[in-house]
Amino acid sequence: MKSVTFSDIEPVQARAHRLPRRGLMRRLATLALLLAIGLPALMIAFHLLDPTAPLGYIVVPVLLGGLLPITQVLPGRFEVKTRFDACHMVVTLDETLGRLGYQQAERGPGSVRYRARGGRWPSWLHKEIDVTVKPHALEVVGPMPALRALRLQMQAH
Question: What's the CA gap between 154 and 59, in Å, rounded?
Fold first, then answer.
């Protein structure tokens, strides 16, 4: 896209941006259960495969591997800046998010909200993308993996 620049994707604090609270406790409980059962099961399986391996060589990588994806579900934001009126970019954003499995859920003056249509993202992942339309920029807030995919798609467009 000519005359369009994309900022880096940066993490945002949950309190700094309104995030839906519906089902938050259920999602956190599911994630905690998966971590509480899955990580020890992986450690036991690796220990059974190689009983001579020091336990530290098994525990540390499994814990890091199990906890690292949590950082990827945190909300992030980036801006799409243009020399022209940013309202015209909402159509391109609609098409791009449609290809990524999102559909427009709410539209208000200066903002648009998109929700994931189906099973592309895990159920415990925050699946909404909020777009704030400014005079010459779109501020996009949502889950980091979705923002990365959106940014790549829009840059290729």
Answer: 40
Q: Could you give the CA distance from residue 143 to residue 78 in angstroms, rounded to a whole number?
A: 11
Other Cβ atoms less than 10 A from the Cβ of 6: the count is 17
Tokens of 122: 């895990």
- 56 neighbors 116 (Cβ within 8 angstroms): no
93 contacts 131 by C-beta, under 8 angstroms: yes
Helix ranges, 14-156 (H): 24-49, 55-72, 89-99, 144-156
pLDDT digit string, tens, across residues 77-136: 999 998 888 888 888 899 999 998 898 888 988 899 998 876 555 555 557 899 999 999
Which value, in Å, is the radius of gyration of the alpha carbons in the chain? 19
Tokens 């890091």 — which residue?
Answer: 64
Q: The whole model's pTM is what?
A: 0.66
Under a CB-based contact definition with an 8 Å cutoff, are residues 150 and 100 in contact?
A: yes
Contact 39, 62 (CB under 8 A): yes
Residue 64: alpha-carbon gap to chain centroid: 19
CA torsion sign for 140, 142, 143, 145 is: negative
